[in-house]
Amino acid sequence: MIVLCTHNDGGVGKTTLAVHVAGALQANFSRILLIDCDDQADFWQFYSNALPKRNKDIFLGGDISVIWNRKREAIRRLAKPEQYDHIVLDMDSALQNSVEMILGSQPDLVLVPVNASQKIKALRNLPRTLTVIAQLAEKTGNSPRTVIVPLGIPATAIEPILQQPELQGFPWEIAPAMPNLQDPMQIAIYQDHKYIWQYPEYADMLDYFSNLLKF
Asked: pLDDT, tens digit, for every residue of 11-26?
């Protein structure tokens, strides 16, 4: 399965989502490829605790391999997808870059986060991201399962967005709302380099992210 985490706004939780989806896959499978398509390389740094030096740098961390894909090249220019159980891509905010990666990776699952701190902006611009996904699905015939993930906001906040006329006719899904754990997650990812469920008080969050993937 190829999973793409995207949204055309920054700071809405793409890397948070990508890291924890990758961790949920790691808990169940042995060969995971992670592709960081963001200039900031936060996805890469979570696993390596260092900055990549050049495009296509590879970090090998046991059963996880991480590639910094700064130029957003198609997956097959980076690796042999058939060698991995699953692939997770973390995108930057530029919508055109997401278009390139959708065309070049043909994802099976697209996860679109909306977090609490950027709620107003993320919801306002959400239709742009979703419209592009729908248009590409119609154009290419590849219709990935697309799930909007409320990170610390109620799922009901997303429902009116999906009622807009231009978004009708595509099988969007809304994930159950995650508790507002933005501050603990910031510490986990950017300071401690841990998954949120590695703290005893948040151990149940592994099930949340695993359920997003519907094993």
From this structure: 889 999 999 999 999 9
Range list of β-strands (E), the chain: 2-5, 32-37, 58-61, 64-68, 86-91, 109-115, 145-151, 173-174
- Give the largest Cα separation in the chain, rounded: 46
CATH of the domain at 169: 3.40.50.300
Q: With respect to residue 111, please indicate whether it lies within any of the assigned structural domains.
A: yes
Residues near 4 by beta carbon (within 8 Å), at least 6 away in sequence = 89, 91, 98, 101, 102, 105, 107, 109, 110, 111, 144
Q: Flag whether 208 is in a domain.
A: no
Each residue of 94-128: pLDDT tens digit? Answer: 878 888 888 888 899 999 999 999 999 999 999 99
Number of domains forming the structure of the chain:
1
Is residue 207 included in any domain, yes or no? no
Structure tokens belonging to residue 51: 């900055």
Domain of residue 140: give its range.
Answer: 2-200
